[in-house]
Amino acid sequence: MNDCLFCKIISGEIPSKKVYEDEYCYAFEDIAPVAPTHILFVPKTHIPSAAAITPENSAVVGKIYEAIAKIAKEKNLENGWRVVSNCGPDAGQTVFHLHFHLLGGRALGVMCDNI
Q1: Are 59 and 104 within 8 A, CB to CB?
Q2: CA–CA–CA angle 54, 9, 7 (5° rounding)
Q3: What distance in Å separates the CA atoms of residue 69 and residue 46, rounded to the nearest whole number?
Q4: CA–CA separation, 60 vs 17, rounded Å?
Q5: 46 flagged as catalytic
Q6: What is residue 115's predicted lDDT score, i.e. its pLDDT?
Q7: Tens place of pLDDT for every residue, the chain, 115 residues?
Q8: Cβ atoms within 10 Å of 37's Cβ, excluding its own
Q9: Looking only at Cα atoms, what is the longest distance across the chain?
Q10: Active-site residue identified among 38, 97, 99, 101
Q11: Can you give the three-state secondary structure of the chain, one letter per residue?
């Protein structure tokens, strides 16, 4: 996607603080962290959101979660961590390329009272 911010980061057109990369995903530090550890994991293939996951592209999500677990361990998040993926404008998605926020390094509290 020519105008996708995350595609430009993956290609190196826009600089980022890379944390991890493999053939399936790219991970980098969030520019506006909300926790001591706040890393974004994005598939290298452009998928607009979780709503666009299909049988043909779903394997990449498993690979991303493998990478998340590896980095969480490397970052010593043994007391716990959270993974968030916003899907659509009402959920707060602002970049329409599937991505997962790894949050940790402090007590995160309850996200929503009704969960």
Answers
A1: no
A2: 35
A3: 22
A4: 22
A5: no
A6: 44
A7: 579 999 999 999 999 999 999 999 999 999 999 999 999 999 999 999 999 999 999 999 999 999 999 999 999 999 999 999 999 999 999 999 999 999 999 999 886 554 4
A8: 19
A9: 41
A10: 99
A11: CCCCHHHHHHHCCCCCCEEEECCCEEEEECCCCCCCEEEEEEECCCCCCHHHCCCCCCHHHHHHHHHHHHHHHHCCCCCCEEEECCCCHHHCCCCCCCCEEEEECCCCCCCCCCC
Tokens of 83: 């993974």
Q: How many residues does the chain have?
A: 115
Phi, psi of 84 (to 5 degrees): -125, 135
For residue 41, give both structure tokens: 């994991």
